[in-house]
Design brief:
About 85% of the residues lie in helices and about 0% in strands. The protein has helices at about 1-20, 20-30, 30-40, 40-65, 65-75. About 10% of the residues are buried.
Length: about 80
């Protein structure tokens, strides 16, 4: 049940970030490092990447692959 809720809210949040990236840019303004490293319109590109990242991470968590990757790569530190 917990994983299903994370999946639903994560995908919804990611989709909302991608859809409303222009409104987010109006609220936050241009992000300097995104404009510098991602080129013109880098703020919008950053919001798309963040939204897709949230979607991918929530899907990975729901199917257990995030725990598998984190356990195998970071498990030696904990």
């Amino acid at each position: 049940m917990d994983k299903a809720l994370v999946f639903i809210f994560g995908v919804a949040l990611g989709v909302l970030v991608v859809i409303y990236r222009e409104k987010l840019q109006q609220i936050t303004g241009d992000i300097d490092f995104a404009e510098r490293y991602l080129g013109s319109g880098g703020t919008f590109t950053l919001y798309i990447l963040v939204g897709l990242g949230v979607i991918i991470l929530s899907v990975m968590y729901a199917f257990g692959t995030l725990q598998l990757i984190a356990g195998s790569s970071l498990g030696m530190f904990f």
